[in-house]
Amino acid sequence: MLMTRDTPSEPGHVDAVSVALTVIVPAYNCPLVLRQCLDGLRASDLPRERWELIVVDDSSTDNTADVARSLADVVLTTKHGPNGPGDARNLGAAVASASILLFVDADVVVAPGTLSGFLRIFNAQPSVTSVFGAYDDRPSHESFLSQYRNLLHHYVHCENPGSASTFWAGCGAVRRAEFLEVGGFDTTRYPRPQIEDIELGYRLVDRGYRIVLAPELQAKHLKQWTLPNMVRTDLRDRAVPWMTLLIERQEIASNGPLNLQSKEKMLTAIAGAAVACFVIAITTTNSLWLLGTILGTAGVVLGNAKLLIWFRRQRGMIFALRVIPARMLFYIISGTGAAWAILGHSFRNPRRSHREAASRS
Questions:
Q1: What phi, psi does 45 have (nearest 5°)?
Q2: 111 and 207 share a domain?
Q3: Number of domains in the chain
Q4: 227-270: pLDDT as tens digits
């Protein structure tokens, strides 16, 4: 991809010889949150001469690049964009000075000890190729959906520390050599924010590289979630492309990472059955079908009991009760996305699907 390079008037204090970490921030039309992101990085307890900051402006139409120039060591600007965060990260990685790349989204504010924490893990565990952290438990926006989504991310990551088979680029690091070896983010397939980081993680693991989830490395998420962008993100940008990727990898039935565990797949099926029973009850006016809806909803509640108890401790009983329909919606969207991906794959590959069915019979 084409790019232009801009160095701030006071590039400062980094020496390529002493730099141990390159922080890469992709940004597009986000001057307000970018300012908070960069201020958070500047407050890091890692000495400034140990890390460099590269901001990649993805052809913004506002003053995002001006904000970047005020604090970054290097500002890159894509041409013919926006091309998506994957492309922006790849551009930053191409000119990075350090052997370790830390990707931080523009709407993420790292904690003071996060940068140094990443370096400690890489230095202590030479066999580790990639490390990613988690959102903290104090989301920026106060709306229910924003609190719910960011706290859920925090909970899931804190419940699954250690070896991982995917990657998260919101606050995640990777050794530059290995990142370049596997080809970086797939910008052809994922030209907008989707599962480009997850797919990169799969390729790293396929090559035998080790990824670690370290939830103690935390950052605050500034994003404000709304119902429309939540549904769009979960369906179009996560469920469909992720299920498509699993089909291609022939891992659709495997016990996957994080929210692809067998338990989550089972709860998705239960939620789908509950909705089906409700639709049948409405269309046939037979209220007995509502029993299936009630039982299915109860199954989802029981399956999420640990999570709901955690939410109650974090935000109170009323908040935890509001999480129940949010979880039902998540499973419905996930099931819809999975079905859409499976149907799409079947229509795109009818002969292959026929052969696979014949071989199983």
A1: -80, -5
A2: yes
A3: 2
A4: 999 999 999 999 999 999 999 988 876 655 555 567 888 999 99
Q: Which SS3 state, helix, strand or coil, does residue 289 take?
A: helix
Residue 250 lies in a domain: no
Express each pLDDT in 62-118 by its tens digit. 999 999 999 999 999 998 889 999 999 999 999 999 999 999 999 999 999 999 999
Provide the H-helix boundaries in the chain: 31-42, 64-71, 85-95, 114-124, 144-158, 176-181, 196-206, 227-232, 240-248, 262-284, 290-303, 305-315, 317-348, 350-360
The residue among 28, 168, 176 whose CA lies nearest residue 92 is: 176
CA pair distance 223, 153, nearest whole angstrom: 13
Does residue 62 belong to any structural domain of this protein? yes
Rounded CA gap, 15 and 168, in Å? 28
On whether residue 246 sits in a domain, the answer given is: no
Indicate the pTM of the whole model: 0.89
Inform me whether the pLDDT recorded for 17 exceeds 70: no
Domain boundary (225, 249, 276) is at 225
